[in-house]
Amino acid sequence: MLSLHNFKPKIGNVTRNRAGIVTLKQAIKKRMNSRIRNLEEYHKAYQESVSQPEKFWAEIAAEFSWKKPWDKVLEWNFRDFNVKWFDGAKLNITENCLDRHLESRGDQVAILWESNNPEIHGRQLSYRQLHTEVCKAANMLKNLGVKKGDRVCIYLPMVPEAAVAMLACARIGAIHSVVFAGFSAQSLADRIHDAQCAYVITADGAFRGSKSIALKEIVDEALQQSPSVKKVLVLKHTAQPVHWQEGRDCWWHEELEGCSEHCEAATMDAEDMLFILYTSGSTGKPKGVVHTTAGYMVWSAYTFRNVFQYEKGDVYWCTADVGWITGHSYIVYGPLLEGATTLMFEGIPTWPDAGRFWQIIDKYKVNIFYTAPTAIRSLMAHGDAFVYPHSLASLKTLGTVGEPINEEAWQWYYDNIGKGKCWVVDTWWQTETGGIMISPLAHITPAKPTYATLPLPGIQPVLVNGQGEEIKGNNAEGNLCIKFPWPGMLRTTYGDHERCRLNYFSTYENRYFTGDGCRRDFEGNYRIIGRVDDVINVSGHRMGTAEVENAINEHPHVIESAVVGFPHPIKGQGIYAYVICDHLPQQPEQRKKEILEMVTKMIGAIAKPDKIQFVSGLPKTRSGKIMRRILRKIAEGDTGNLGDTSTLLDPAIVESIRDGALQ
Ligand code: WTA
Questions:
Q1: Which among 542, 543, 573 is the best mutation to test ligand 1's pocket, defined by most ligand atoms within 8 Å of the CB?
Q2: Could you tell me if 167 and 226 lie in one domain?
Q3: Peptide bond preceding 352: is omega within 30 degrees of 0, i.e. cis?
Q4: Alpha-helical runs (H) found in 603-638
Q5: Which of 266, 291, 310 is the last residue of a domain?
Q6: What pLDDT is attached to residue 283?
Q7: pLDDT value of position 466
């Protein structure tokens, strides 16, 4: 393995160093300025990242371990959408997450684990132990037949083995596709099928508050429609009884036994796929966002380092689930790449009571805490009495992610959790961006409540108006696009590059379109307003309205439905479903219950509508398009002025829907 200390550039790399191509050798000379320490350094780094992006990223990348340096830092075009970072380089991300730290911090805790049940002892794994576990698990996967390039679906609760499984895949060059364990059998099957996974890693069950969830049972159901799956590896966690299919199912602990603690890391190309992660878009089924090895590594590490300003010895806790991108980048990869101590929590914020988060912060003396606005709003609603018994004195940085944070929640977080002395970083980013894009840097960038503030170095945001023109100047509002590639950006959507190009690069020429509306204030601070497409953000979870409609339409008595978001005091947005049945239901409450069950079955409980209204028709234009603008207004309770309805096929339907909503 190469590191900065033993790297000897080969003659070949030097001769290939044409003008404009920065090699690792050049980069090493200028390295070690990638940690921003103050606002002046931020502005300097930002300027450099725009004026000389290749040089800028080469210097940062030089701090990692490479098996072979790159030939070219960046190649890109947004027209066909083709982006390559560090092309020609060879590496393994797990050597950077683990091996690289063994000498300097082998005995430091890498993963701290807190069980769902506060009575049960947590676990901790040092970097050395994690390295051993990952190597053993990697050998176990190899024994089961997993090969480089194979897709492995991971459907696990929040236990250290989830991180071990991800890293074990990366160790041998298999591509992980983690599916959040709250998704239904149908969703799991769809994702397994799309990525043609041959292996599934799951557990017998999961604990969530007072409940236990039969994960293996869900997997069994999913596998009835997943012929691609050859083996299911099952972690014993809850010890509940499970159905067993001989020849297909195997126990993690049995397979792990006797596996060697040594596993040479597979040599990966910079642009080899690292993982697939499914996320919802405005149309069709969720798409498998693909991230590749080198760019994602550099981006997740660089953003973790600078946004959170992690210092050696800090305890860092991100409350996300590894099933989401936040868990990938800021529980597993980012923190481990930086040699941090990262806490994983299996449970939920409100069990045994709404003081659980705060109790954990005191227990582990957490210094950096990163959560979602929904959690903050929900805990705020439970009242300050759950906060005051806990000192929270260890905290110095608070983060938020996943959805816009309202001013009241921001202030409560700052005052009651941060005690007025912690920096709050409101981090805007997406599954597709791989890591944080716009955010204050803790203790550096002046925070402004509800603003994600300034772009990180390397990020060139632009606001675009309805005509597709860039809005220059401050104090402006428009659709948020990014006009230059950054290392952590998605490379494709699995199996369908054209869909990726159409989704992100065809709305505005030569720009990545985020799907978010955004405001830029007088000082150039960015505030994300919310999605401008048919994606809704419920408790920080992305949901396609079409996806929820498809699930509702599966009910045998449903003819058609239309789903919109509406403001929700805790969840940010709630789901409002307008449903047409074959006959107006005699027992509407019973029918609503059945519809909720159908959505839970097709997607998962997180997609259950908050409100269902039975209607006799939907406001459609003459060309058959549903006018969601009107439905959104009604859902918001803003029925006074519904705007122009003259283009509707049947304007009278609007009144009947409005009257129904008011009932
Ligand atoms: C929203 C989560 C406002 C946004 C990391 C984005 C935010 C979508 C913020 C991506 C924020 C994320 N302020 N809105 N700080 N962070 N969003 O893919 O609409 O699950 O497009 O990634 O969440 O959600 P995703």
A1: 542
A2: yes
A3: yes
A4: 628-636
A5: 266
A6: 80
A7: 87
**Residue-level pLDDT at 18:** 46
Out of 239, 266, 293, a domain closes at 266
Residue 492 belongs to a domain? no
pLDDT score recorded for residue 130: 98
130 and 260 in a common domain: yes
Q: Is the same domain home to 255 and 128?
A: yes
Together in a domain, 129 and 61: no
Which DSSP category does 648 fall into? B
Structural domain of residue 592, as residue ranges? 535-662
For residue 231, give every residue at least 6 positions away whose Cβ sits within 8 Å of its Cβ, in sequence order, or none.
144, 145, 198, 199, 200, 248, 249, 250
Tally of CA atoms within 13 A in the half-sphere of 434 that contains its CB: 29
Q: What is the DSSP string of 43-87?
A: HHHHHHHHHSHHHHHHHHHTTS--SB--SEEEEEETTTTEEEEEE
- Closest C-alpha among 266, 208, 261 to residue 238: 208
Amino acid at 396: K
Residues of the chain with pLDDT under 70: 1-33, 663
Q: What letter does residue 372 receive in the DSSP assignment?
A: -
As for how many domains the chain has, the answer is: 3
Pocket probe for ligand 1: among 528, 529, 538, the residue whose CB has the most ligand atoms within 8 Å is 528
Query: Ligand 1 within 6 A of 428 CB?
Result: yes
Q: Is the CB of 537 under 6 A from ligand 1?
A: yes
